Amino acid sequence: MASKEKSDGGIVETVKTIVYALLIAGIFRTLFFQPFWIPSGSMKDTLLIGDFLFVNKMAYGYSKYSCPFAMCPVSGRVLFSEPKRGDVVVFSHPVNGSDFIKRLIGTPGDTVQLRDGKVILNGTELPQVPAGEFVETYDRQGPMGNLPRCENSAGAVGVGASCTKSRYTETMPGGRSYEVLNIDTNGFADNTDVFTVPEGHYFFMGDNRDNSQDSRYGQAVGGVGFVPAENLIGRADRIMFSSAGSSLFYFWTWRADRFFKAVE
């Protein structure tokens, strides 16, 4: 009898330990850092498919989107800190609720326009300096198996060949710089009307400028449009782990040079 009671007590303690661990993990994820796996190439070459990072949820304060499934009992934002232009931000899509990661280009009151692939921010073109080429293998990437878009003979590049894009260093007012990729300058998203960012909203773009559904595209055509402040989840600060394969267990595809790399 004593043995059965001891066994039952051991099971109860194990269950309690698991519950406590889940509660602690949930609190940590809600208040401090959320894991995020990069599923697409819209932020190349700042972030690659298969990069794993933690999103700093303390950076901008908290909203209902700070909790999984947008279940935080919060109205608006609490302990709000204004994001800065150039931040790489994870946010909840205003329509479908998916988590997106893009670079913040325009803050409330800013005007944003694209001309020939160049960003015109508040009437001034953001300087772009050539920074060589971004080269990757033309092959299916990550669990989704997407093929990259290429600048070099896009229709003729075969599997296993080198896929290249022009790379530029773009600089924000104040001197913050980061790299962007370009394939052409003739697409709709390379030449746009002037967007005026409404109060309480933000304008985002992917660094892989010709392969990103972002604020240049309205929500009706699969883009994100202007993103409300409430939908911000956190700032991407550092890559913790990276794998080029379709599974993180394929250790031979790990990118050790990206481990613990700061997100610029």
From TrEMBL:
One of its GO terms (cellular component) is membrane. The keyword Phosphoprotein does not apply. It catalyses: Cleavage of hydrophobic, N-terminal signal or leader sequences from secreted and periplasmic proteins. It is a single-pass type II membrane protein. It is found in: Membrane. Keywords: Hydrolase, Membrane, Plasmid, Protease, Transmembrane, Transmembrane helix. Signal peptide: none annotated. Residues 12-240 form the Peptidase S26 domain. Pfam families: Peptidase_S26. It is an enzyme of class 3 (hydrolase). It comes from the Bacteria. GO terms for molecular function: serine-type endopeptidase activity; signal peptidase activity. Belongs to the peptidase S26 family. This is Signal peptidase I.
